[in-house]
Amino acid sequence: MPWSLLSVEIALALLGLVLLVLGLVLPEKGRLLMQPLTVIGLLAILILGGTLYAAQYDLFSGNYQVDPFAGFFKLLFLVAGILVILSAGRYLGRFAERVNEFYSLMVFALLGMVVMASAGEMITLYIGLELMTISFYILTAYLLNDKLSAEAGLKYLILGALSSAILLFGISLVYAVTGTTVIAEMAAGFTIEPVMIAGIILILAGFAFKVSLVPFHMWAPDIYQGAPIPVTAFLSVGSKAAAFAALVRVFIIAFPVRAFDWPLLLAVLAAVTIIAGNLIALAQTNVKRLLAYSSIAQAGYIIVGLAAYNIYGIKGVLFYSMLYVFSNLGAFAAATVVEVETGSTDIEAFNGLARRSPMVAAIMTICMLSLAGIPPLAGFVGKFYLFSGAIQSGLLWLAFIGLIMSMVSVYYYLQVARAMYIGTNDDTSAIKPGKAVGAALWICLAGTIFLGLYPGPLSDLAQVAIQIFL
Amino acid sequence: MSSWILAITLFAPVLGAILIMLLPPDREKTIKSIAAVFTFISMALSIWVWFAYDRIQGGLQFVQQIPWVADLGVTFALGVDGISIPMLLLTNLIGFSAVYASWRINDRVKEFFSLLLILITGVMGTFLATDLFIFFLFYEVVVIPIYLLVIMFGSSKRVTKEYAGMKLTIYLLIGSAFLLVGLIALFVQSYYILGYPTMDIFELATIDFPLGFQIFVFALMAFGFGTLLSMFPFHAWSPDGYAGAPTAVSMIHAGVLKKIGGYGLIRIGLMILPGGAAYVAPVIAVLALGNVVYAAFICLSQKDLKYIVGYSSVSHMGYVLIGIAALNLISINGAIIMMFAHGVMAALFFAMIGNLYEKSHTRNVDDFGGLAHQMPRLAAGFMIAGLASLGLPGMVNFIGEFTIFIGAFGVYKVLTILAVSGVIFTALYILRTLAAVLFGPRKPEWDHLEDLKGPEMVPLVVLGAAILIGGIAPFTLMDLINLGVGDLVAQLGSLQIGGMF
Q: How far is it, in rounded angstroms, from Cα B277 to Cα B262?
């Protein structure tokens, strides 16, 4: 059995353990090295993941899948992890008591996501999910002296455990009918009966909680607002993408559409999520919370692709998840810079940012507009794929809702732009974001613009990844 | 054959914008010069294209195609024909003038000119793209720079600039959301019919879509493009937006951006969906009458110069819509000439108003009087724009209106007669305004105002020349447009307009 196929997972586990030990043994000053070390380690693993991209192999008799679909998401998680860690350093230095465990927890969360993307069996999937979620429970409450952070951690723990229980219950019901937990074998034992439908719906609800679809979204704003901002960023991008990867694999492979029309269910959820997320975001005055609602709406868009259930739609899911990494993390990195500087993420804190740091303001604006789907930025191409898929499947109403609401979303994104460009601020000193955050910002900008202007390469990559479903 | 000439024309302003972004903010003179040079390059090239276009061969020329996104069938395709060349020239005439009309900007110069140049490229791109996807990319690019320009550099009078900017943005984006649904539906349907994806406008035009589908998509487009063209009753953004916007944005917006709506209706709507166009045309014609008459009446009661020109541009767009809705060679020729004519006229008007406002800090008609004493050149600019606006023979606008009415009369008799009445109202409010602002006894409180000089003269010379040359020698414009529209109408065949009632 070729162990090299698991080298990404093994390397991540080792990196996490090494970081954990280093956090304990290194002297206070030496811990500053942990950030560059983590970034270098993840970069190396990213290259490793790139070389394994085209590999296709069933490990442990189908329990663990190494295929381009998982490979696509692994690259996505690693890129997201690198960007988040680049932007986290100064933030931790300013707000966190200690940085010892932060990096190793991030790496373990990353490992959990990687396992979720590759899981070919429900229990393996669940283990990956729990590894990721438990790391996030701790990370969410990482600011020890901050009440909001502690509250967010506790809320996430309770609600996360509840949703895991729901997911597990759903898995057990499906197991009761099909007699297997291996995803690829479920379709064979699929019979349509009430228990099965209950099981599918519970699994869907469990995942819907993770990706924060309305009406399972209630946790997201509080936790996003309370958690340290790099954690929020990683939660909104990585944890969601991991849940999407699992959702796509499980639903497409295990549950035949002929027997149960779950895409329609998803279409309704998507519509409700897009509408509610965008409308509630209109009323927000805290940028972190605004981005939380915006990320709820974004999850709605991504789900459109799965609801469409065709090539353009699924490709859209992958494409959008990837561009969402760049655009959303760009916006979060800019917000991190502002919070480090001003100690707040209220919209007033962004006043006059365009004069204090034109680069950060411009990147924030561009990234948010990409989320809104304004061409020639990446978000537009992503939406084009998603809604081409939707219309192809006859979901014209969903395309109307999605595109009109995305234009509505421009309103709240532009409120932030307005504060940055014409807001007045007593403090007009220049803001220097620092080298690491600067690098993250530029990468996000480059990704957002490049994928918008020239989507061909990523689209080809996604095409390879979805071959496993064709 | 691949020609780089259009790509260079298109991206010269962006190149300028990038150079400007690299400069330190205090190099104001250099920034302005860069903006002027790069818009001049685009203008010179588009004039060259105008003359170099092979009128005997006709069709699409200076074509450039680079495969872009394989699985969506997108090609980065540029090309011009008789319909797009006048629009290209219009964009660049106004873009170049707009840079000079903004010469007095002295706060945040760097932001202003880089956004302005991006805006110009965005507008130009819609006229050059022959690929639906690329067209839409450019179509929406323009919205955000405009918002930022309005909130940063606009003026708050009757409405605040923040309100004006947001109203304009949201109106246009909601319109474009419907348009985008239509475009995606078109793409999906063509994929279904052809079996392979394509976004090429001319290839899509060869497909015979089912009539019901054509009607549905054309209606979406009429709404989307109609909003941009300020079609009644979706015109409310236009006067407020112009009033809040800085001079250069008002010029570009009223001058060319609106015309993307008309151009899109013709290039995409009529060409790809002729059946849908014929079905929906009567509705557009009736709404167009709303534009012409209703907006003209509102103009009569306006006191703010920018609102007068704003509503008058809504009114004039009614003529364009009638021309398009009549669906014949003459009327569509007229609609395109009218778009060109209104573009240069409105831009000149806004340039003059902007100049006057900068110096006097008011736009209220009643505050002025006898300005021709102090500012004879500005008065000349106002007169050229005003007389062009009311369609005086000898100005290019007359050619447009006349052609539209001739073309439309055969199709909509009553409507056309009613629409002609708009000309009278226009004359009424324009002449009244000009008289109140420019003529009459000298008012000593305006003695300190300086007349146009130096860079301020550029918009007057460039746009004034375009109005007069087009008016005195209309064949220069007419021949070219006729070529493009001829191809289009040949494709339309003999369509029966209507069918709804």
A: 13
CA-wise closest residue to A386 among A312, A299, A325: A312
Predicted pLDDT at B497:
67
Let me know the angle formed at the C-alpha of B210 by B209 and B216, rounded to the nearest 5 degrees. Answer: 95
> What stretches of A255-356 show up as alpha helix (H) in DSSP?
262-281, 287-308, 311-342, 353-356
B/e letters for B13-31, b = 16+ CB within 10 Å, e = fewer, are bbebbebbbebeeeeeeeb
Spatial distance between the Cα atoms of B439 and A128, rounded to a whole number of angstroms: 81
- State whether ipTM is beyond 0.95: no
- Angle subtended by helix axes A378-392 and B161-194, to nearest 10: 50
Q: How far apart are the C-alpha atoms of B369 and B386, rounded to whole Å?
A: 16
- Structure-token pair, residue B325: 């809705």
Contact indicator for A313, A390 with CB cutoff of 8 Å: yes
C-alpha span between B440 and B373 (Å, rounded)? 9
Asked if B11 and B121 touch (Cβ cutoff 8 Å), the reply is yes
Spatial distance between the Cα atoms of B376 and B361, rounded to a whole number of angstroms: 19
- The angle that helices A102-118 and A240-254 make with each other, rounded to 10 degrees, is 10
Task: For residue range A312-342, list pLDDT tens digits in order.
Answer: 999 999 999 999 999 999 999 999 999 988 8
CA distances, A401 to each of A308, B39, B93, B184, B258 (Å): 14, 39, 39, 14, 26
Residues of B with CB under 8 A from a CB of A: 68-72, 111, 133, 136-141, 143-144, 147-148, 151-152, 162, 166, 169-170, 173-174, 176-178, 180-181, 184-185, 187-188, 191
Q: How many residues does chain A have?
A: 470
List, for residues A407-416, the tens digit of each pLDDT value.
999 999 999 9
- Residue showing tokens 């604006």: A365
- Here the tokens at position B285 are 């014609």
**Average pLDDT value for residue range B2-24:** 89
Q: Which of B169, B178, B187 lies closest to A410 in CB terms?
A: B169
What average pLDDT does this structure show over B43-70? 88
In the structure encoding, which two tokens stand for residue B124, read together?
Answer: 């130009």
Q: What is the pLDDT of residues B227-268, one digit of tens each?
A: 999 888 888 888 888 888 898 999 999 889 999 999 999 999
Instruction: For residue B65, list its beta bridge partners.
Output: B77
What's the DSSP call for residue B255? I
Tokens coding B61: 């020329």
Q: Quick check: helix, strand or coil at residue B66?
A: strand
Report which of A148, A157, A177, A64 is spatially closest to residue A114, judged by C-alpha positions: A64
Rounded to 5 degrees, φ, ψ at A65 are -110, 125
Instruction: Tell me the per-residue pLDDT of B409-465, one tens digit each, with 9 for 90 and over.
Output: 888 888 899 888 888 899 999 999 999 898 888 888 888 888 888 888 899 999 999
What is the C-alpha to C-alpha distance for residues A83 and A447, in angstroms, rounded to an integer? 12
pLDDT higher than 70, residue A78: yes
Residue A451: C-alpha distances to residues A325, A443, B78, B452 (Å)? 12, 12, 21, 46
What pLDDT is stored for residue B455 in this prediction? 86
pLDDT tier for residue B129 given thresholds of 50, 70 and 90: very high
Can you tell me the distance from the alpha carbon of B285 to that of B265, in angstroms, rounded to the nearest whole number?
13
Put simply, the answer to whether A421 touches B173 (Cβ < 8 Å) is: no
**Are the beta carbons of A239 and A132 closer than 8 angstroms?**
yes
Token pair belonging to B479 = 């021949």
B269-282 pLDDT, tens per residue? 888 998 888 888 88
Give the position of tokens 């606009």: B154
Q: DSSP per residue over B447-467, as a string?
A: TTPPPP-GGGHHHHHHHHHHH
Measured in whole angstroms, how far is the alpha carbon of residue B476 from the centre of its chain? 20
| Residue B152: closest C-alpha in chain A | A422
Q: What pLDDT score does B488 carry?
A: 82
- Out of B71, B177, B184, whose CB is closest to A391? B184
